[in-house]
Amino acid sequence: MRYGRGIWAITASVVLATALSGARATDAKFPDWEGQWARTEGAQFDPSKPPGLPQKPPLTAEYQAIWEAYLRESDAGGQNYNPQARCIPGGMPRMMIAYQPLEFIVTPATTFVVVSGRNEFRRIYTDGRDWPHNVAPSLSGYSIGHWSDDGGDGRYTMLEAETRNFRGPRLIDASGIPLDQDNQTVVKERIHLDKADANVLRDDITVVDNALTRPWTVTRSYHRVRNPTWVEDVCDEGNQWVFIGGETYMRGPGGLLMPTAKDEPPPDLKYFKKPEAPPKAQAQ
Amino acid sequence: MHRASAIRIAALAGVLIAATIHAGAAGDMTYPDWEGQWLRIGGGGGLDPAKPAGRAQQPPFTPEYQAIWEAHLADSQAGGQRYNPQIHCLPSGMPRMMMAYDPMEVVVTPNTTYVQLTYDNEFRRIYTDGRDWPADMEPSFAGYSIGKWIDQGGSGRYDVLEVETRGLRGPRVFDGLGTPMHEDNQTIIKERIGLDKSDPNVLHNEITTIDHAFTRPWTITRSYSRDRHQLWVENICHVSNQYRIIGDDTFMVSMDGYLMPLRKGQRPPDLRYFDQSEK
């Protein structure tokens, strides 16, 4: 009898413990990445180095020359090289600079990444799928991720993502660090909380691209705000640039076009009807 | 005795295991399955898909806003689109974004339901964590949305999301024909979102707009059909946008890269800031 009660109690305890453990595992399997993640560093791609030439991206000679041409254009006031000046999204990997704060929405099958303000959006599929054959290339690419538990406690700590299937135009940052026009970029990421500070998220980003002589790895970091306010940032409203053909102009007072460089010609108005010439004064 | 104990043990284990499975499922079962890609059913010409686009929509306008709308319709017929924020790649905002020009994804989490529109990445957060309206609401095109889950069918599973959206800013119109909202941006939008009772692959959104441009609330229902085999195609307005705003007027850029008029007789832009002296 006692033996039977003992078995009952032990069995009940084991089943209950299993039940609770199972419930906990469901909740605790994925890391807590809720909140708003604001970048902690500058907007150059490698935050450990100053912007511009000190970034030293491992560009091929051909793409180094292209970058230097962009830098000269930028110095002269032009932005024709920069898709974001036209309000075209940064795409990957530039969007992970997080000009505006990020939100990570972690679900078992997909982790969604929203770059607030202009709402750039990524889906990182973690459902075990393979690369698709029929998806249109995009600026943010197609991302497949894999969760891993490097702490061995049954809770995922690291999201490893690989992103392919790009389209252009994309740059690595605002200085114009270029990517190869073939859009064969592969971006690998390791996203994880800082081990000493759960309010710091790291993204180790490796860019593999034919414009580079070797993979380029940087680490970007973001700081968590728990009860955030999200602010909309509509690119076109604050956008001072106007692009017509291959020329960059600015909006001046009254929204009128202004040149961005000395002696820049105005746009060609050949499709407008020419104003009629004033009638010639009649001889008296 | 042993047999009785074994039966009791087995019974208890069975009950506990069943309870465990139920508890585990309850976590998943609390919220409805709205996963997938939702494509609009009905046209995108007017907010109310039950009526043809244009005047047949019969929004309950005040005389003042009926006149504003008539002016927009006249502008549209003359080839203009100045009333339409979307041609300048501004977000549609609420409620127009729920027309879902391109497919939509709804991500349900306990505290927030996210709505992502493929068209130009419009994005909404519907907070379902019991919060109240914030005192310092920053106005936005999508507004600030607070939702409440309802178990209408009494099945123990939520089936309707009731949402109220405030904190809006402009410029916003209801549709591509310039059906206007009041410039005071005091619009309130109430939604009841739920799956069709007979077809779980159809989502309905009953949208009621309360606005000072109206004499009474305007209620319409938009519906979406589910595609489980999601293929998302990016659609970024600025990639293909050929419109340019210069001063108070709107122009186009031709395929060969020249500025061109948008309507007959349109004057060219004022180029006073350029040095046009003969050299």
Question: Can you walk through the features of this model?
Answer:
The complex is a heterodimer of chains A (284) and B (279). Helix content of chain A is 16%, strand content 26%. Chain A has 284 residues and is of the alpha+beta class. Chain A folds into 2 domains: 1-29; 36-76 and 84-229, no CATH class. In chain A, strands 1-9-8-7-6-5-4-3-2 form a 9-stranded mixed sheet, with no helix packed on it. In chain A, strands 10-11-12 form a 3-stranded antiparallel sheet, with no helix packed on it. In chain A, strand 10 (241-244) and strand 11 (247-251) form a beta hairpin. Chain A is elongated. Residues 1-26 of chain A have low confidence and may be disordered. Chain B is of the alpha+beta class and 279 residues long. Chain B folds into 3 domains: 1-30; 37-232, no CATH class; 236-270, no CATH class. Chain B has helices at 2-29, 63-77, 237-240; strands at residues 37-41, 104-108, 112-117, 123-127, 144-150, 160-166, 188-195, 202-210, 218-227, 243-246, 249-253, 259-260. In chain B, the strands form 2 sheets. Chain B has a 9-stranded mixed sheet, with no helix packed on it. A 3-stranded antiparallel sheet of chain B has the order 10-11-12, with no helix packed on it. Chain B starts with a helix and ends in a 19-residue tail after the last strand. In chain B, 31% of the residues are buried. The interface between A and B is large, with 69 and 68 residues.
SSE layout:
The complex is a heterodimer of chains A (284) and B (279).
Chain A: H1 2-28, E1 36-39, H2 61-75, E2 102-106, E3 110-115, E4 120-125, E5 142-148, E6 158-164, E7 186-193, E8 200-208, E9 216-225, H3 235-238, E10 241-244, E11 247-251, E12 257-259
Parallel strand pairs in A: 4-5
Antiparallel strand pairs in A: 1-9, 2-3, 3-4, 5-6, 6-7, 7-8, 8-9, 10-11, 11-12
Chain B: H1 2-29, E1 37-41, H2 63-77, E2 104-108, E3 112-117, E4 123-127, E5 144-150, E6 160-166, E7 188-195, E8 202-210, E9 218-227, H3 237-240, E10 243-246, E11 249-253, E12 259-260
Parallel strand pairs in B: 4-5
Antiparallel strand pairs in B: 1-9, 2-3, 3-4, 5-6, 6-7, 7-8, 8-9, 10-11, 11-12
